[in-house]
Amino acid sequence: MSPKVTITHLSDLTPPSQERTWLTAPHPTLPIVATCSSDKTIRVYSLTNFTLLSTITGGHKRSVRTAAWKPHMTGESVLATGSFDATVGIWRRWDSYGQEDSAGMGMSSNDKPIPADTLTAASNGTGTVAADREEEDEEEWRFAVLLDGHDSEVKSVSWSASGMLLATCSRDKSIWIWEDLDDGDNNFETVAVMQEHGGDVKCVSWHPSEECLASGSYDDTIRLWREDLDDWGQVACIKGHGGTVWFLDWEGEETEGNWSGPIAHSDSESELSALQAQWRSQRALSGPRLLSCSDDRTVRVWRRQPKESQQTGPLSSATTGIPSIIRPTGTDEVWEEDAVLPRAHELPVYAVAWSKRTGLVASTGADGRIALYEERFVTREQEQEQQAGSDAMDTTSGDVLRTEWVLVGVQDGAHGIYEINHVAWAKRADRGSGGEEEVLVSTADDGSVKVWTVTR
Amino acid sequence: MAEMQNSNPTILNAADLPTRLRPTVTRKSEYGGIFTSALPLTPVDFESDPPSDSEDDNLLEEPIDEQEIYDLISSISDPEHPISLGELAVVSLPDIAIKPTLPDVPDSPLQSVTVLITPTITHCSLATVIGLGVRVRLEQSLPPRFRMDVRIKEGTHSTGDEVNKQLADKERVAAALENGALMGVIAKMMETCH
């Protein structure tokens, strides 16, 4: 009945790890990914030819659970890794091989000229990138610094949009925010330690443009954090999930000429552009939404109530009878449930990914399934059809734009019998690709990482 | 473990524990006849094609039933007594269930094993360790197509929900497996397993 999305296996990343892999982080600009493994290493694969480029070893004493690439780096890649050994590692590498890959040269790690002057590679941050040619293969990933502070397993790490702040979280119930001083000496300064969560903090994720951090926890809550006059503090606590919140992802912010909002199945161009315009103005008020998944098997979307409407909205004293003194004020934000996505999982949902390019949402988990969801506008006619069967009058129609989430694709047994721990969207980079396509990268318990194309 | 939490537990006679060596009440009621123990545990469907699933070792895998799960975990020793979990009735056959993980996908090989644990006393702080031991034993013995669901039987423990949440948390279990001290305790519990 409704248009479906097709998930097709493109390739495995080879050779796979022999142990459980937890997460695969796509590089923000280069066609490479970093896969975290229980074998204490991080494996860097090419998305151009799907082969292993290098293995980062020697930094962590236990499972590597998480990794994130620092954004806005040119000429050099910086990777943060978090481990069950309670530490966070920072790794650096000059970008020459990634660039060769993106030019379609495939395997290129052989035949590299060894630079005559390797001293410049031990850069103090002042040397120009062009002068800093490659080091020997074995030393391609340079261990920069170990961030020590958490008392137990580090579960997640995330760089802020600017790349200046790194958030880390742990089973010790705390979230640490570190500032990368970028002083050429790999110094990081602890900016804040937040301990409000009542259980393991499973994930942290920065807002796509603002310095606002979201965290999900074993205490079943999602919390949001902002800086207010030098102090980092909680600005919202979202209760809704009935189990551990395993993963979070933000909606993309609209970029020029790139529509990643809901889909309209309408013939009318004018109706579509009207819907999109209304959507844009609503979005401008509440900002990007937050996506979460949980042990309770659900995937949910959360929306911030626009500040203006907090005064007159459903939480105002006139509506609730609650005196204004205990209403949220100042930096506090009200987040409400925007949607519960159609149920697609029988076991805990470990990861969600919201495509910044297409708006499609992917989820995966212990049942070994990958599910895809699409958001659609609910048009006037559809709304009337729905209402025809009931005598309830929808008084909000007209001023609030309604959307619905539809399950558009399911891949069962995506990694055979194994649990899938992570899923992420990445830009497609192999030879069969044309233009701006995306691929889905899934990471499983048997060490396998698979790349999928998604077409609609 | 300075002091024993339950110094005088009820112990079942080993001869009364369910086993496949003799026809037991459950076996009899299901199949009848004394030769049933020689038959395959799951009726074999000769008409259907062998599973087309060429996934690694699935083809040669024998069917696994509740009794086999019981055999795997009943021989684990209690962390404070040199007595098995079966003899202490911490685990028992009727509290083990196997069912398809994805009921809406008929050809899915995934199966979920639910084991309900009955601690010997309602405030036993070792319940988490016992549960972890059971989960680790199953994870190490069963093929990866099985999903473990090890829980404290409802109403038998004062902090059952808390223990259950820990035992169901994949990340915590994985981290526990890398914890030398804890794994030492669990290895000792499993010394009595065959």
UniProtKB/TrEMBL annotation, chain A:
One GO CC term, this protein: cytosolic [4Fe-4S] assembly targeting complex
Ranges of the WD repeats in the UniProt entry: 57-91, 147-179, 194-225, 440-456
Region span, Disordered: 303-327
One GO biological process term: iron-sulfur cluster assembly
UniProt keyword Repeat present: yes
Superkingdom per UniProt: Eukaryota
Transmembrane regions listed in the UniProt entry: none
Keyword Metal-binding: no
Annotated Polar residues bias: 308-322
Keyword vocabulary terms for this entry: Repeat, WD repeat
Protein role: Essential component of the cytosolic iron-sulfur (Fe/S) protein assembly machinery. Required for the maturation of extramitochondrial Fe/S proteins.
Family statement: Belongs to the WD repeat CIA1 family.
PANTHER family assigned: CYTOSOLIC IRON-SULFUR PROTEIN ASSEMBLY PROTEIN CIAO1-RELATED (PTHR19920:SF0), WD40 PROTEIN CIAO1 (PTHR19920)
Protein name listed in UniProt: Probable cytosolic iron-sulfur protein assembly protein 1
Organism in which the protein naturally occurs: Penicillium nalgiovense
Automatic annotation (TrEMBL), chain B:
InterPro entries (UniProt xref): FSCA_dom_sf, MIP18
Gene3D superfamilies: 6.10.250.1280, Fe-S cluster assembly (FSCA)
GO biological process terms, semicolon-separated: protein maturation
Family: Belongs to the MIP18 family.
PANTHER family, alphabetized: CYTOSOLIC IRON-SULFUR ASSEMBLY COMPONENT 2B, CYTOSOLIC IRON-SULFUR ASSEMBLY COMPONENT 2B-RELATED
Protein's name in the database: Uncharacterized protein
Naturally occurring in which organism (per UniProt): Penicillium nalgiovense
